[in-house]
Write a structure and sequence with these properties.
single chain, mainly beta, Immunoglobulin-like, five-stranded antiparallel beta sheet, rod-shaped
């Protein structure tokens, strides 16, 4: 051992004690530049410039090995040194720095070049690990390792940071070279760098499975539209779009570009059927992700609808939306009327796929769509538009009660005229009830097969009173609409005035659209048919007195009818004749007195012959020409024999007065004269 080596050994042994309190970590960074076969050392001066003599850098190339004096620097301001080497691997290099002072010296910590190891298990992810430049790292170390990569050649970029001594990197290239190093920054501003290592690598990692956010329908093109989130894999090249066709998932198109995240399917028909879609991503190495086949999403379609024109409602039913991103929250039913903006007509929960829209307005053009939405309302899916016109069933333009006449003096026959071009279910006939003061149902005409309808009301007594009717149309919705005119029938009464006159009175007909031009009065007797009007009276007339004296010898029963004749103002061209009930002046009492009699002759006594006489209420008186009563009888069978107080009465003219009741207890009185012949 020469004297120089001995001096160095003694210095190493004694220096730690001599330099108590000095900073031994002033060698801060070693950068390994493998490309140029260089290492670069960085330090901070450990002593004051006034004490400074020189820097000496010591280097050991291998382990095991010995340190050698690499260089000596006598400039205080120099704080870095580039070591260019020819042989060896920088991964084994170690360095320390001795600073000589005027009184002694300061030796730094020994730092070793950071060695980098790369393991490639063939899974598409490589493992980087490295050694520390000092154990533990020097106090000024910032506590982090930065990982750098060179790709493409000449382009270095930081890909991550860690406080650990290892790092996993997912390869994203297809059979190409990658070079790495690890940087370790120091608080002084420099940064150590590991040796550079690399190799040829291939990305075999599949991209993550894409996330579809929604499948909807473009309202303009009526084509299905798929939307998804950008794939997180940075080397994503594009996406494969699948549609479920004939029970198989078929690739229908490719979307290129990681951030191109929508697709419109020009071959879809989502307005006629629901379409299901799935997605897979692929990277630059043609690695394909798992497809979303187990969680496909589908277009919504309104499967059925039921418009009810009766209550102006629309029942909607649609298919369920599957696998919506962010969880399906429910469905909104949107409507637009006559081209106006869409408004929310209703909502349902996620498990309900039907809804009835209330309160539609008639004669309007509506558009509807169903929209599924997630819990945050950020993702939606809509159906095609459903377009309907809220028609009403045709309403009848007219409903007219034409006639209500008495038939056979026992029932009323009603004639109606209705617009059958409309949707009519039935006609409801009503009759006014005097007790309740309202119209009540009396009958139904169903079906309505002709515009002229006939109905016979058999529940009336037309010989006793007049009746008032109207008719309601029952439309196809079962609603009663369009009330007709009210129609009042004619009720005729006949009353005897004495024995030779009949007082006729009737209720006026009401409801004829053409008005009443006149009343025809008919009389039927035993010898007359009554087919020709007895008289035609003005339309405002409701009574008539008929003198029947000239007919009493030939008939004992008189029957009357009144018919109202309609005027010319009916808008539908009707000219009706409305018939009343029959009114009978029957059982008219008749007494026949001889105009002369001779006692002892053919007519031995003077007495009447009669019919329909109440013989129990009969009173006959006979007076002479001076007004003296010569005979009285209350027995219908007892007549005058021409005597007065037992003596024959003188011939001449006498007066008779008779009072009686008829068979209906009506009171009558008759007067007349006769001649007593001797």
């Amino acid at each position: 051992m020469d004297i120089r080596q001995l001096k160095y050994l003694i210095t190493l042994i004694t220096l730690p004690g001599l330099l108590s309190g000095q900073d031994d970590s002033y060698l801060r960074c070693i950068e390994a530049n493998t490309t140029n076969n260089q290492t670069i050392l960085h330090w901070v001066p450990p002593v004051d410039e006034n004490d400074f003599v020189s820097y000496t850098i010591y280097f050991k190339p291998t382990t095991p090995g010995t340190f050698t004096d690499l260089t000596n620097i006598d400039d205080y301001d120099v704080n870095s040194f580039i070591h260019t080497y020819v042989n060896g691997s920088a991964s084994d290099f170690e360095y320390y720095l001795e600073t000589a002072t005027s009184s002694s010296g300061v030796i730094s910590d020994t730092l070793k070049v950071m060695d980098l190891s790369i393991q490639d298990p063939g899974t598409g992810t490589i493992l980087l690990s490295w050694t520390q430049q000092h154990q533990p790292e020097i106090p000024s170390w910032e506590g982090i390792y930065n990982i750098w990569i060179e790709f493409p050649p000449g382009n270095w970029q930081q890909i991550g940071s860690t406080s650990e001594l290892h790092y996993e990197y997912e390869v994203s290239i297809c059979n190409d070279s990658l070079t790495f190093y690890v940087g370790s920054p120091d608080g002084s501003g420099c940064s150590s760098a590991s040796v550079m290592k690399g190799g040829r690598f291939t990305d075999i990692t599949k991209p993550p499975m894409p996330v579809i956010d929604s499948v909807s329908v473009n309202p303009i093109t009526n084509r299905a539209v798929v939307g998804w989130e950008p794939n997180p894999a940075p080397d994503t090249e594009g996406y494969l779009v699948y549609r479920y066709i004939n029970n198989n998932w078929i690739i229908i198109d490719t979307v290129w570009g990681r951030f191109n995240t929508t697709y419109s399917d020009g071959t879809s028909y989502p307005c006629s059927k629901s379409e299901s879609y799935a997605l897979a991503a692929f990277d630059s190495c043609s690695n394909k992700s798992l497809g979303t086949f187990l969680e496909p999403q589908n277009t919504l379609i309104i499967e059925s609808y039921d418009y009810n024109p009766c209550d102006l409602t629309l029942g909607l039913s649609w298919n369920a939306y599957q696998n919506m991103q962010g969880d399906l929250s429910g469905y909104r039913i949107l409507s637009s009327r006559d081209g106006g903006p869409f408004i929310i007509a209703g909502t349902t929960a996620s498990g309900t796929t039907n809804f009835t829209v209330q309160g539609l307005l008639p004669e309007s053009d509506y558009r509807f769509l169903i929209r599924a939405y997630n819990s945050a309302s950020q993702v939606t899916s809509s159906t095609c538009f459903l377009e309907i016109y809220t028609r009403r069933y045709n309403q009848p333009a007219f409903n007219y009660l034409v006639n209500a006449s008495v038939v056979d003096n026992s029932y009323l026959q009603l004639t109606c005229f209705v617009d059958t071009s409309a949707s009519i279910s039935s006609l409801q006939l009503r009759r006014y009830d005097e007790v309740s003061s309202q119209f009540v149902d009396v009958g139904t005409i169903e079906p309505v097969e002709s515009d002229i309808c006939i109905y016979d009301d058999l529940t009336v007594f037309p010989q006793q009173q007049s009746y008032t009717y109207d008719i309601l149309v029952v439309d196809s919705c079962g609603k009663r609409i369009l009330q007709s005119n009210s129609f009042s029938t004619i009720h005729l009464t006949a009353k005897l005035l004495g024995t030779d006159r009949v007082q006729l009175e009737w209720t006026p007909v009401e409801g004829l659209a053409g008005g009443v031009s006149g009343y025809e009065l008919y009389r039927r007797t035993d010898g007359q048919t009554g087919d020709v009007p007895l008289i035609i009276l003005p339309g405002y007339t409701t009574s008539y007195e008929d003198n029947i004296a000239a007919l009493l010898n030939n008939s004992d029963q008189f029957t009357y009818l009144v018919a109202a004749r309609e005027g010319n103002g009916n808008p539908w061209g009707f000219h009706e004749k409305v018939w009343s009930n029959e009114a009978m002046a029957e059982d008219i009492p008749k007494l026949f007195f001889p105009n002369a009699f001779r006692p002892g002759g053919i007519n031995r006594v003077f007495k009447p012959v009669g019919i329909f006489i109440n013989q129990q209420e009969y009173h006959l008186r006979i007076y002479n020409r001076w007004g003296k009563e010569v005979f009285e009888s209350e027995a219908f069978s007892r007549g005058w024999d021409g005597t007065y107080e037992g003596n024959p009465a003188p011939a001449g003219v006498y007066v008779y007065v008779v009072t009686y009741l008829d068979a209906k207890d009506r009171s009558f009185e008759e007067k007349g004269t006769f001649v007593l012949v001797r």
